[in-house]
Specification:
With 51 residues, the chain is mainly α. It has helices spanning 2-40, 45-49. It has a domain at 2-36. The protein is 86% helix and 0% strand.
C-alpha cells in the first residue's frame, strides 16, 4: 500500500518539477541573453529608445 501511494505522489510531482525547472531555465536564459545584448550593443541608439 505504501508503494502505491509513493507512485501516485511521484506521478503528481514529476510534471510539476519538470515545468518549474523549465520556467527557471527560461528565466536564466532570458536574463543572460538580455545582458549579452546590452554588452554587445553598448552605445547604440536603439537601446536608449527601448526605455
Amino acid at each position: 500500500m505504501v508503494g502505491a501511494v509513493a507512485v501516485i505522489i511521484l506521478l503528481l510531482l514529476i510534471p510539476v518539477i519538470v515545468m518549474m525547472s523549465g520556467a527557471v531555465a527560461s528565466g536564466v536564459l532570458g536574463w543572460l541573453l538580455g545582458r549579452d545584448a546590452e554588452v554587445r550593443h553598448e552605445g547604440s541608439e536603439l537601446i536608449e529608445l527601448n526605455d
